[in-house]
Structure formats: structure tokens, C-alpha cells
Amino acid sequence: MAFGVYVHIPYCLQRCRYCDFTTFEQSEIRPPEDYLQLVLTEIRSRAKIFDSTELASLYFGGGTPSIVPAEHIVAIINELANVGFPLSSRSEVTIEINPATVDVEKFRIYRDAGVNRFSVGAQTFDNGLLALCGRRHNAQDTHRTLDFLAHHGVNYSFDLLFALPNQSLEQLTFDLDIVQQYDPPHLSAYCLTVPSGHPMAINRPSDDKQIKMFALIQERLSTMGLLQYEISNFSRPGRESAHNLLYWSDQPYWGIGLSAHSYRPGLPYGQRFWNPNSMEAYEAQAPLSYPPKKQFEILKAHEALTDYCHTSLRRSQGLLREGLNSRFGAQGLELVHRRLQSPSVSELIVPGPDGWTLSKQGVHLSNRVFLETTFSEEDFPHSGRIKEDF
Questions:
Q1: What would the DSSP string read from start to end of 141-178?
Q2: Which of 39, 259, 373, 385 could form a disulfide with 22 if both were Cys (CB 3.0 to 4.6 A apart)?
Q3: What is the residue range of 221's domain?
Q4: Is 37 a residue whose pLDDT tops 70?
């Protein structure tokens, strides 16, 4: 079983207007040096929750991890190894970076420490749209960063954000033309999601236009040889994000840092636990061997089945009958089979001998399928004893 670690670095140069993650500008919370000590304390305190093993994936996310000193990243990698979670030659080690936040020396330190994948928060190459999003960088900064990574021949990905206020198909085409010039190994395409009443909800493209935008992204990336292996993620064969695959394939992961979430499968349906999103509460909890009970949940059968269906259907390989039967038995398999035959989603699903995948239309309307495969305790009651070992 693969195992991964996520480390949250909450600092940003400037908080983006659409962001709903736990992030702060540096002056708003304790300095990075203090936060590093809390992270190292948490690593030492909670290492025994998981069995020691080599890491399949280590992911530094945020926030913008690349704005803290590179030596902090090195210290975290070293401390994980000290407590039984070393890197190997097979480990994927990703750090999120924003354009214009990595220089030659910082890059060298990352590489020497084992970082071998960079995720660039490009979002768009349109300076007007970048300003609208509250991004500090401009398109020229992104070009310089991508040119630098390409020159050094490292594995990288970048994010593309679409369905922005007043964004046209022509502006999206402009972004995709630049993507084609770089020919990246991996790209994540995210539709802007903000709640009703948010300032950036005004003048967004209609639902129909958003579908056209995503269809254009799919078509253009396909011609570049980037395969859609998950709803929002495209890659060349063998360049899929190992860390994201952990999340989507029911593998254990340890989330370290402010607001980070962890997961352990089994017991019998899995446990989730998480850290608080305030610095004061995190400082109080970092020395604890386990999080407080209010911050962990033991999944019930219907919750685990819901998660399993949603994460599996997001992937191009789909929801496999064998895995479903192995995890949830004949009752779970039959329940899912009935739901996916429902008239409300039958045209959004492609059934096959091994399982089910989303149709082309289903990828665009996946929330309908996820709604149909959200189960209640009455749908799938738990049988057996739930083990509670915190």
C-alpha cells in the first residue's frame, strides 16, 4: 500500500480573491520560523500514528511554499526521515510554487533535498484576468518560471483557471495556445468556483459556456498528447500526479500543518482526522500524540461507499466492480449498480464488463452522478463493529 504526506505551508504574498484555503499573508500570523518549529513538533509527536515506510509521495502545498526559506523545506524532509518516513529514488516530491518566487539557489536547494516535481500556479496568461484574481505575478513572470523549469528538464505541472468573470473563449484559446508552446508533462484545469454573492461570481460565463470552455480544453490538450486521467487533470503517460492518485485510490496519507487532513483506510471503513485552522489552536495541539476526538471521525459504511464511488468515478479508469465488491460486498455492488441505472444519470455513465466510467457528457455534468451516488445510512447500513483506536 502506497503512503503519502502532505505538508501545508499557509503563507502567501497576497491572498487571491477566489481562495478558500487556510492561507495568510506573512504579516497576519506567526513568522515562518515559528511555524516551522510547530510543524517539526507535530512530525515528532504523531509519527507513530502511521507505520514507518518509504514515502510514495511528499507534497508541499499552500499557500505558497516557495516563499518561505528553502531550508525550511529541507528541515521538514529531514525530520520525516528521522521519524521513519524517508524518501527513496521512487518518491515523488512536489512543491507548489508561484511564478517569480524561485531563483537558481532556491531551486538547487530543493533539488538537492529530493524535490523532483514543481507545481506552478500559473492560472492564466492574461494580465487583466490575473489582476482580477488578485494574483501578484504577471504573465511575464510565469513565462520566465516555465522557461527555467523546462531548461532544467524537471518534471512540472501548472494550473489553468477558467470560467473567470467576463472571460471569453478567445481568451481561453490564447491561454491554450501558450500551453501548447510549453508542451508540459502535466496540467490541471480548474473551473472557478465561488459562492453566490461573491464579487467574482458577477459576470461569470453561463453554465453552457463553461461546458464549451471545458470541452475546448479537453480537445486542445488531447491533441497535445495530454490524457485526461481525472476530471480536472491531464498528463502524459507516466506523469500523473502520484500524490493525487493516493487520494483517489483509497490509500493512507498524513496531513501535517495548519488545517491539514489525514486518512487511514480500514478499521473497517476508515478514519479521517484533521488539524485546526487557527495558529493558536495548532500551536496548542502540535505536541499532542493524537488530535482531539472532536477532530477525527470514524467513517460509517455509507460514507465510505460514497467516497469510494466519487473518487473512483473522477478517474478515467472509473469505478471497478472487483474493487467495489471486495470493499463493500455484494450488497454495496448491487446498490451502486441500481443507482447508476437510474434514468437521471444513465446517459452520463458508460457501463463496461469491469465497471463504470463517466461518459463525455458525464464528465461535464459529474455533480449529477455524484449526487446519485451519495448514500445515506438507510441506503447502506453498517454491519460489524467499528474499531476506535485513538
A1: HHHHHHHHHHHTT-EEEEEEEES-TT--HHHHHHHHHH
A2: 259
A3: 4-246
A4: yes
